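Contributing new records

If you add data, match the layout below exactly. Sequence lines come first and carry their own label; structure lines follow with theirs. Keep one chain per record. Anything else will be rejected by the validation script.
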Amino acid sequence: MKRIAIWALITLLSASGRAFAVDTPIDYQTLDFRLSITKLRAGNHDSTGINQYFFQTKIYGLPVLKEEIKKPFADRKKQEVDLGKFAELKIDSLKYWIPEKKAGGTLMSVTGDRVRSLIAETMRINTVPEDETSVVCVVTMYEMNKKFGWFGEDTKVGEATFSIIPESLPHGAKVENKVLTITDKQGTFVEIKLEYQALDVKAPNKV
């Protein structure tokens, strides 16, 4: 009888905790982040022996719906924002790239405001609340093959993916610095550093 009473009390406390637990709304202004190429070894992708690479960055807003989460990413409902290209590099096959002192061209900065706008669009188009949305960023590496910049198709080397706002609960942003990698069987090796401004101890305090 005593065990039953204790179990009932634990169950009641747990239920109360869930009832009163409220996810803190996301402050999208804290989600500014930067992508930078920190290491690159060229693959063997061009018959000339000289590879011309670039990286394309896109973010996707996805509704977290039961009928959607089981589908492959390519088949899911999603809103896309193309953030453009960065790190256009020309390098010999199987050679390591040596970063320049001023690496402005190998950086991509993304504001939390872009993420906020994408979430709002995802909510509106899919008629879902904010806590049923997620955001994924995909960085795709290409080798230029278009003639005169227009004809033909560029070669996709590989891609790196990370969640800005995961589908897991409790709903919230995943503010975490990490290193992403891209490799392939042609000898390519790339490291891309993901850094959130909110985690930069050198950044000035906001007033």
